[in-house]
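#struct-pred
JK: can someone run the complex with pyridoxal-5'-phosphate? inputs below
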Amino acid sequence: MIDKVRSHPTQNEPLLFEISSPGKVGYQLPALDVPPVDPEGTLGARNVRAEIEGFPEVSEVEVIRHFTRLSSWNYAIDLGMYPLGSCTMKYNPRLNEMVARLEGLAWGHPYQPETLSQGALEIIAALEGALREVTGMDAVTLQPAAGAHGELTGILLVRALLESRGNPRRKVLVPDSAHGTNPATAAMAGYTVQPIGSGPDGRVDLAALASLVDEETAALMVTNPNTLGVFENGILQAAEILHAKGALVYMDGANMNALVGIARPGDFGVDVMHLNLHKTFSTPHGGGGPGCGPVCVKQHLEPFLPTPRLRRNAGQWGWDYDRPQSIGRVRAFYGNFGVMVRALAYIMAHGGPGLRNATIDAVLNANYLRKRLEPFFDLPYQAPNMHEVVFSDARQAQRGVRTGDIAKRLIDYGFHPYTVSFPLIVHGAMMIEPTETESKQELDLFADALIAIAREVETDPELVKSAPHSTRTSRVDEVAAARKPVLRWRPAPPRQAAD
Amino acid sequence: MLEVCGAGAAEDLFSHLPPDVRLQRPLDLPPGQSEYSIAAQFREWADRTASGYASFLGAGVYAHFRPVVVDTIVSRGEFLTSYTPYQAEISQGTLTAIFEFQSMICQLTGMDVANASMYDGSTAAPEAAMMAVRATGKSRVLTARAVHPEYREVLHTYARYQGLPVAEFGYDPDTGLADLADLEAKLDGDTAAVLLQSPNFFGGIEEVRAIAELTHARGALLVFLFTEAVSLGLLRPPAEADIVAGELQSFAISPSYGGPFAGVIAAKEKFLRQMPGRLAGETKDAAGRRAFCLTLSTREQHIRREKATSNICTNQALVALMATVFMSLYGKQGLRELATQNLAKAHYLAAKLPLRFQAPFFNEFVAQPRGASPEVISARLLERKIIGGLPLGRFYPELDGCLLLCATEMARREQMDSLAEVFA
Ligand SMILES: Cc1ncc(COP(=O)(O)O)c(C=O)c1O
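RT: done, structure tokens with the ligand placed:
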């Protein structure tokens, strides 16, 4: 029995282009208070375009209905639990949306005088300070726009430091459990990626590490807790191995929701790391962004941080552009300021004790789900987990049902699926991260749903394999989409006259 | 719950951590506050961030009216609090909107394909240059000096560590437009991409066709950059370019002290496989109905890892949705009217000021005040609650004494008159 949801009608809606009709508009501008100009005469006819072919022509109410109807086809945290592993889909407090829209903050221009930007700069300073305390690192840049952008910044910092010591070195070690952005980042920074295997407990294999690290190793990119949700217990030894050879430890901080208030990367050998404010610090994902990927470093990397750096001078905050050793800019202006505002509001609402409690609840929720689901699903790694737990579909696969099928069936039960097929070291991975947001009631509904699906796999595997059954859109053919890509709307060709 | 987990206390959940990695004290952060005190604190900060000034700053971040409907839509939890639309069956709202976004960007730019967004224009630019490097197998990148200085800085950062030499070609001192002779002299058989921004940083409208011809004659690709998207409502689209990379902040995205904004890359069809970032594509569901999903992900990091076209994962989806709603509201007629108003306002203001360059411009231009320095003028303007333009000496020493000014549809006549008085 599915208790959590029942279906109700959703509106159909064509594409905007298909509801367009000539002459409709959804805007009104104030009357021009200066003399009009003739574009062709002012710019030269060669610089002026013809009308934008195919561009929409719709009214305001049509726009509202269009996007409201579209929105009703989405699942969201506001509707229920969203246990995507590695994504930390926690509740997004609305206060944070409100403060980000306050006029001075929303309309601040990045080039307005610093004397007129003290409020914004204090916000940035306060956030940098809080993140230093949370991570135990010495300096923070908020310029990177997302996690992967932070990774690139961090690895460029490593490169710049090593270069200043005479040799940028050639390779970066990346565990086989790492997120795809890690190897992609190392390559973008001009490094060869050297994969490193995980041990039987899912942790970085220290013996393998020791044998791989040499004078050409620039860094290890390690996620901690790793993508299995398992703390890298050997992190201090790993750091020693790297540091002994002059290499650095880069930590992917995507999983900081397991550590805030409990342990700090700055205390366990990490030289440089990034955070995802759009995970740990609750800024909304917005269907894929925006994010903010602060990079936190130890003192030896500070001179290389991107320009400009925030500094305080004679009682005023301002930007310091005189940074001769800096890697340069990684983004125009100062980063995704609006995201920083939201993250700081989150930190202020929680305070030190509240942040720590959130971590404890996140870890408790994941462990509770582990206990409830362990009898029904294969748990390939037995090590204690923190904020997320990774099962595999090994048992269900015997009946021909894969992790992707179970994920789709969860939709019928009213849940967003877990992360499918990641990390790559778990064949048929089911990666579950409940976050601290969820109550015991919601967790129980989720566990009950997965257990019911496990039973369905035994009794009626086809039901699971053809899921979802309750959505307005049934299973989407992704193979066809890639085979013959249609990436934009085009007007239908004019009908041929019947002959 | 603790009991189910076999833990006596919450602390036990962390007992497997080595003791020497544990933080042995509480975080040194103040206790949590109520929403009312937090709101009051942010109001205080906001009040000390240039509230109540008229501004003539542009330079990559533009003040345009924001239709109310835009925030109405993006505040819907179904858009705001969803993740990347990997599960297509319950993400058709986001996917359909991305497909519409991609379509409108193609219509605006004259390109065949567009991606779902990049972080911003300044990171889209080097990503577009790297696309050209992969597509041509060449390594050198040439950028106009009249490309936004901070975009060029980002380009240098990205290129430096990949061993891609970046050179710059100058601008004509009279027009402020690209110096074609300098470009021709610097283009060589090893050049993968020429980066050109139009309207350029000085507001001038570049001769895109002539530059495309020069660029293509040497086997390089033309990467066209834009920072003022509203200009595309009126200016001829850069159809001769191979790749277009730009910033959509002008489409109802608040200046927000520099971000979040939304970048985008669009290109000719033949460069599709080199495109970084997400793409939404049309397909069918099991019942044969039209549906959308993320596609061609074999270009991306989660499949291709170190061989991916970029490491980008999270992009600027919600901000791109703002731009999509904006484009829908203004539409074919509105974008043109909006652009024409910008043209009229900027030309009204420019007619009252001493201009540095002779070239067609859209809503920005460079003024060279006589008599007083930009600093003195800016200070006098601040007394009138006006933030004047951007002093250019910081980015272009040879333009010390000049100001970059922008007038959009939001500039009011009396403010412009007041500004001109101070200049006179
Ligand atoms: C472990 C891990 N590393 C890196 C990233 C990349 O972060 P972002 O998507 O913000 O670029 C993610 C998230 O997608 C992740 O889960």
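RT: quick notes.
Residues A 86, 146-148, 179, 181, 223, 227, 252, 254, 276, 291, 293; B 313-314 surround pyridoxal-5'-phosphate (CB under 6 Å).
The mean pLDDT of chain A is 96.
JK: thanks, will look after standup
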